[in-house]
Amino acid sequence: MNAPHPQPIALQGAGLVKRFKTGRTHIEVLKSIDFDCRHGEMTMVMGPSGSGKSTLIAALSGLLRPDEGKVTALGEDLWSQRPGRIDKFRLDHCGFIFQGFNLFGALTALQQVTTILKYKGYSPAEARDRAAIALTEVGLGKRLEQRPAELSGGEKQRVAIARALAKDPRLLFADEPTSALDGENGQIVIKLLQRAAKEHGAAVICVTHDPRLEAYADRIIHIEDGRILDDRRTADVAAQAKQSALAGA
Ligand code: ADP
Ligand code: MG
Fold it and tell me: Which residues form the ABC transporter domain (predicted)?
């Protein structure tokens, strides 16, 4: 019936627990989370504010060490590595997109992208070419010399996406990437993330509480109070709806 999932697993978390100490109490923010996602797929992580979404992607992406559990990223046991190795892993393989864009105020759109590419080891000329291509792909080919103050919110987020995609990351993490944007710009941004999955084979993990984005997901994970409540592929959802329609006919 259903074809096996064609794409390999890119990222897997097993038994992830994270606690924070606030004053004298510990709060458990991740309560033994099992998570995986595949190359070429857009996985949406949804859930109310404070449910642990940002903590989860921080643990999965090497930004925040979990107290328990294991993260296997592109076949590597991420948290068993030396800190320097984790930093290198992030630089080589991960792209990040945040709600607040996280651009450098003093740099032009082009420089935002070339800086990270040079840091990764590209020559200045290669970095420039790659950056210009990445910015053109997100529709900013004519805005290369603009600084953040001269760009709209939607344009700023597209610069952040170009910066993340220019290094062709295998893992792309987006934390509420559309929440500072209006509907139209949000849609442009989410379609670019979808393209990173479909055309570049990245595993895209997108945290959002915007239900309008569900339509772009291959898989939707609902998290509440540090636990996964629901995990389904949208193809399964569509198939289920079809089945029950047929059963009802
Ligand atoms: P979400 O992204 O779903 O809104 P978060 O992962 O940011 O949720 O946070 C989950 C819970 O953990 C919240 O109650 C938050 O206050 C708490 N929290 C997050 N980071 C820290 C921290 N560094 N120290 C203490 N508590 C934190
Ligand atoms: Mg958050």
Answer: 11-249
